[in-house]
Amino acid sequence: MEQLLDVQNLKIQFRTGEGKLSPVRDISFQVHKGETLCIVGESGCGKSITSLSLMGLLPANGEIAEESFIKLDSDELTGKSQDELRKLRGNRMSMIFQEPMTALNPVFTVGYQLREPLYIHQKLSRKEANQKAVELLDKVGIPDPKKRVKQYPHELSGGMRQRVMIAMALACKPSLLIADEPTTALDVTIQAQILDLIEDLKQEMDMGIIFVTHDMGVVAEIADRVMVMYAGEVVEIGEVEEIFNHPKHPYTQGLLASVPNVEDDEHTLESIPGTLPNVNEKIEGCRFHPRCPLATEQCRKQAPPIFHVNENHTSKCWLQEEANINDKSTTTS
Amino acid sequence: MASEIVTEQQVKMKPKKKESQVVQVFRKLIKNKLAVFGLMIITLQLLMAIFAPFIVAYEPDEQILEATELPIASEGHWLGTDNYGRDMWTRLVYGARISLVVGIISVVIGLAGGITLGLLAGYYKRLDGIIMRFVDLLFAFPGILLAMLIIAMLGTSIVNVVIAISIWSIPGCARIVRGSVLSVKKQEYILAMKSLGAKDSRIIIKHILPNCAAPIIVFATMRMATTILSTSALSFLGLGAQPPSPEWGAMISAGQDYMWTSPHMTIVPGIAIMLVVFAFNVVGDGLRDALDPNMEYPE
């Protein structure tokens, strides 16, 4: 598959009263065309900040550190001016948000808001934009789009509004779509419809998708690959089957153990003890070790590098080094 | 799909009433009796101002020297005449013109300045400090003193009154707009617009400003009352419209020497000012309630 997005050593810094904080520390990942990468992790682990930074939409006191490198197709995004980034936003990369209730402007009709990206990037006339808006609504499965474009957001249901958001984001056929928990605020039946819609549109437009969520059920539904984040770091990346069937990092194992299982009566829900550390908390060694049931002396002292489980699966855990050594000794002996 | 079909049916079941927000707000407004009274007075003043030459029999400074200081309800002069024999009703009607024009122009100028400053201060954190300190500086003067200071520098005339009162309207408006911008710009739909690649100018003017419309409309209405009152006050003090202008404040000022002999010379313009100021205030109050979506109205 062709590579679409390449992120290397992404580090995000915030200037605050307590000095510089780094909610995202040195993460690297890739997204390919036609692929869905799910970013999972607890609230506050840096998922949303990562997606905002890709769009160039960090809050005023946030910045991407100099050593970071982001490439979309063949364009390097790091080092681009705000104005250059603005021309890419909504055009080659788009974003949909968590709350369909608040992500549409209440004082304008759906059509008015749908026309905005078309005016901004394609300089369409009002008539053309209006026609395109109707087509877009039709495409995201909204019945009677001609009537709907004249309605206000409060006249639509949550699921419809999320469809409108998707239509807005995809108006200019972006190659990268970032979806920040787009289904969290919807009820389950609508959730499934929206996931199907995103999947269909992905295939139709050959987009790469970054899908941020904390819902493992959604991950299983939509992901091609999964990236697990913990406290601003990527702890494990792998293909979705690998992550679900052979999770290597204790945090991923913990996450999976905390998902209810209807089929298995014996299954007991387990929570990961402790809470996510504060962004400014200094933790020596592995950032997960205070909560890790398998932590060793080494984990307390030294942060683990990234170990390869196989070509497409990495884990940031000392246990993996051990496993790799054992593997080698069994294959050589 | 199921839930969406239901909503679709619900929409269809409702009788076709797709009225604009303006109509909805007006409907709510006219449920408020005081506001209706205010609206009537404002309409009356508006009609007086527009059709002034057609509803009076005299010129505003036409002196009928054989009929000076006629009391109220005299024949041919139902509001009487003043010490020069000028018809009070005629002067009152032409005065309505002055106070309305001065009010509208200075509120519009004040809003233009206040909205610009408020939008910039609310949206750009860098400018916030500078702009709001400047606004605080303007606030530090008592309003009427600020206006007098400006007139003292520019000279006494009705144009300078407009300038002074416009400047005086700026800080209040800037604060109100800034406050709304601060809350609106945090909304997700603004972030969504940014993520679609909209420029700052587009976001501020097309997406933030319309969301601040309600407080601005209320402010403008209330401000009309203050402006009319201040124009009269300044003219009364001799700093605004000069005699023989039929400006209401100037009329009171001219009438005060005849308070004992012809009290109607001060009372008539005084009541006019009071009614108009009261009207704009109650309409402003009514609008505030009507524009507030959280306000429940009994059917």
TrEMBL record, chain A:
<keyword id="KW-0813">Transport</keyword>
<keyword id="KW-0997">Cell inner membrane</keyword>
<keyword id="KW-0472">Membrane</keyword>
<dbReference type="InterPro" id="IPR017871">
    <property type="entry name" value="ABC_transporter-like_CS"/>
</dbReference>
<comment type="similarity">
    <text>Belongs to the ABC transporter superfamily.</text>
</comment>
<dbReference type="Pfam" id="PF00005">
    <property type="entry name" value="ABC_tran"/>
</dbReference>
<keyword id="KW-0067">ATP-binding</keyword>
<keyword id="KW-0547">Nucleotide-binding</keyword>
<feature type="domain" description="ABC transporter">
    <location>
        <begin position="7"/>
        <end position="256"/>
    </location>
</feature>
<dbReference type="InterPro" id="IPR013563">
    <property type="entry name" value="Oligopep_ABC_C"/>
</dbReference>
<dbReference type="GO" id="GO:0005886">
    <property type="term" value="C:plasma membrane"/>
</dbReference>
<dbReference type="GO" id="GO:0015833">
    <property type="term" value="P:peptide transport"/>
</dbReference>
<dbReference type="InterPro" id="IPR003439">
    <property type="entry name" value="ABC_transporter-like_ATP-bd"/>
</dbReference>
<dbReference type="GO" id="GO:0016887">
    <property type="term" value="F:ATP hydrolysis activity"/>
</dbReference>
<dbReference type="InterPro" id="IPR003593">
    <property type="entry name" value="AAA+_ATPase"/>
</dbReference>
<keyword id="KW-1003">Cell membrane</keyword>
<dbReference type="Pfam" id="PF08352">
    <property type="entry name" value="oligo_HPY"/>
</dbReference>
<dbReference type="GO" id="GO:0005524">
    <property type="term" value="F:ATP binding"/>
</dbReference>
<protein>
    <submittedName>
        <fullName>Peptide/nickel transport system ATP-binding protein/oligopeptide transport system ATP-binding protein</fullName>
    </submittedName>
</protein>
<dbReference type="InterPro" id="IPR027417">
    <property type="entry name" value="P-loop_NTPase"/>
</dbReference>
<dbReference type="InterPro" id="IPR050388">
    <property type="entry name" value="ABC_Ni/Peptide_Import"/>
</dbReference>
<keyword id="KW-1278">Translocase</keyword>
UniProtKB/TrEMBL annotation, chain B:
<dbReference type="InterPro" id="IPR000515">
    <property type="entry name" value="MetI-like"/>
</dbReference>
<comment type="similarity">
    <text>Belongs to the binding-protein-dependent transport system permease family.</text>
</comment>
<keyword id="KW-0813">Transport</keyword>
<dbReference type="InterPro" id="IPR050366">
    <property type="entry name" value="BP-dependent_transpt_permease"/>
</dbReference>
<feature type="domain" description="ABC transmembrane type-1">
    <location>
        <begin position="96"/>
        <end position="284"/>
    </location>
</feature>
<dbReference type="Pfam" id="PF12911">
    <property type="entry name" value="OppC_N"/>
</dbReference>
<dbReference type="GO" id="GO:0055085">
    <property type="term" value="P:transmembrane transport"/>
</dbReference>
<feature type="transmembrane region" description="Helical">
    <location>
        <begin position="34"/>
        <end position="56"/>
    </location>
</feature>
<protein>
    <submittedName>
        <fullName>Peptide/nickel transport system permease protein</fullName>
    </submittedName>
</protein>
<feature type="transmembrane region" description="Helical">
    <location>
        <begin position="134"/>
        <end position="152"/>
    </location>
</feature>
<keyword id="KW-0472">Membrane</keyword>
<dbReference type="Pfam" id="PF00528">
    <property type="entry name" value="BPD_transp_1"/>
</dbReference>
<dbReference type="GO" id="GO:0005886">
    <property type="term" value="C:plasma membrane"/>
</dbReference>
<feature type="transmembrane region" description="Helical">
    <location>
        <begin position="158"/>
        <end position="177"/>
    </location>
</feature>
<feature type="transmembrane region" description="Helical">
    <location>
        <begin position="98"/>
        <end position="122"/>
    </location>
</feature>
<dbReference type="InterPro" id="IPR035906">
    <property type="entry name" value="MetI-like_sf"/>
</dbReference>
<keyword id="KW-1133">Transmembrane helix</keyword>
<keyword id="KW-0812">Transmembrane</keyword>
<feature type="transmembrane region" description="Helical">
    <location>
        <begin position="258"/>
        <end position="283"/>
    </location>
</feature>
<feature type="transmembrane region" description="Helical">
    <location>
        <begin position="212"/>
        <end position="238"/>
    </location>
</feature>
<keyword id="KW-1003">Cell membrane</keyword>
<dbReference type="InterPro" id="IPR025966">
    <property type="entry name" value="OppC_N"/>
</dbReference>
